[in-house]
Amino acid sequence: MQSRWLAGSLPDKLTKPYVHVLFGARQTGKTTLLRALLPEPSLYFNLADPLERSRLLADAGAFSRACQALPLQKSAHYVVVDEAQTVPAVFDAVQSLYDADKRRWRFVLCGSSARKLRQTGANLLPGRSLQHRLFPLLLAERPAPDPRPRGAASPFPMPVTEVLTDPFPAAPLLERLAYGELPGVALAPEADRPDLLRSYALAHLEEEIRREALIKDWGAFLRFLQLAAIESGQVVNFARIAKDVGISPVTVKGHYQLLEDMFIGFSVPGFSRSPRKNLTSTPRFHFFDLGVRHAAAGLTPGLDAVRADPGRALEQWVGIELWKRIGYLGRGRLHHLRSKDGAEVDFVVELDGQYTPIEVKWTERPDRNDARHVCAFLAEQKNATSLGYVICRVPRPEQLDERVIALPWHCL
């Protein structure tokens, strides 16, 4: 198995006497990671298997009986449940067993959706569980072909948890923008990647969403899904999308929440801690992976899908990378800033009381004009910022202003 960032910290966490819940979108590598870390659990329930799922849906008590049948021993029995959200009663059974004996079992529940659990009020084991997230590949897990320039500092470095001894094959920028960062797609031959991503959009988006949610007008939802993918990375216009699809704005907001619950996308709220009075508070919505975004938008994933608007694709890739790092770090927030008169900062990273403004440009030759909105932000937030960045295709870091650095994309 190629090295994953979470593999550095997750083994120690899994030894702690709590229930462990690993969430993440389909095909991010949850099952592969758990099989590598826990190759021989005492019990393994694969609820992605229709027969196994149907058995527990018909007889939820079978799960508890199987756990109680395990022999007593000094060390905890690891019990792994894949796609646990498909049988919400499993969470109640786990709570009951855990409360009865906190050290006999070590439950590891894996899921690709939190929607059914949230809607049905299924127990998310408050005070008893540790939640973990697995994302598509980080830049650290799948390096760039070009070496990192000496002395290049990242605006948001990940803490070093381990040396990634077997990273995924290096990939150039256009390949990432064309096919995204899902592990299975990254390892597949390039000729197969478009079909894999189209299959993901059909099977793992449409079919999984159909199973997860009670949607009355499925045709309208599919039109919404395509529009949401086309406009990924843009400020959401709920009223316009509602009009185009033929549903209410309230329903549109519910559909976006569904995509977030299934880890298919994430919202980036507007930055509100600015003295400017004309800022927009409407969020941007991003798909969690560019390759999936292309397929869901009805495009053929590949270089042609990127060449039509490479700057927008790069901006989305940067936003997704920052979002993944915040998720793994477990603290911080990602914002965007946009005023009604057109001033805009693509991303503002909030971390430990400090704000880092980041602008994204496709250019190989950035100048101070590319940094003007970042400079304005730094002037407004003097006590809460240190440096701003322009992420672009420059070959090595360049100083654009006293506190603004142009940074190569692979140094992010």
A few lines on this structure:
With 412 residues, the protein is an alpha/beta fold. The chain has helices at 10-14, 30-37, 50-58, 61-68, 89-100, 115-120, 173-179, 183-187, 193-212, 218-230, 238-245, 249-261, 290-296, 303-307, 310-329, 372-380, and strands at residues 19-23, 43-46, 77-82, 105-111, 129-133, 265-268, 284-287, 333-338, 344-351, 354-360, 388-392, 398-401, 404-408. It has 16 helices and 13 strands.
Structure overview:
The chain is of the alpha/beta class and 412 residues long. The chain has two domains: 5-133, P-loop containing nucleotide triphosphate hydrolases (Rossmann fold); 173-411, no CATH class. 38% of the residues lie in helices and 17% in strands. The protein contains 16 helices and 13 strands. The protein has helices at 10-14, 30-37, 50-58, 61-68, 89-100, 115-120, 173-179, 183-187, 193-212, 218-230, 238-245, 249-261, 290-296, 303-307, 310-329, 372-380, and strands at residues 19-23, 43-46, 77-82, 105-111, 129-133, 265-268, 284-287, 333-338, 344-351, 354-360, 388-392, 398-401, 404-408. The strands form three sheets. Strands 8-9-10-11-13-12 form a six-stranded mixed sheet, sandwiched between helices. Strands 2-3-4-1-5 form a five-stranded parallel sheet, with helices on both faces. A two-stranded antiparallel sheet has the order 6-7. A hairpin with a 2-residue loop joins β12 (398-401) and β13 (404-408). The longest helix has 20 residues, at 193-212. It is globular.
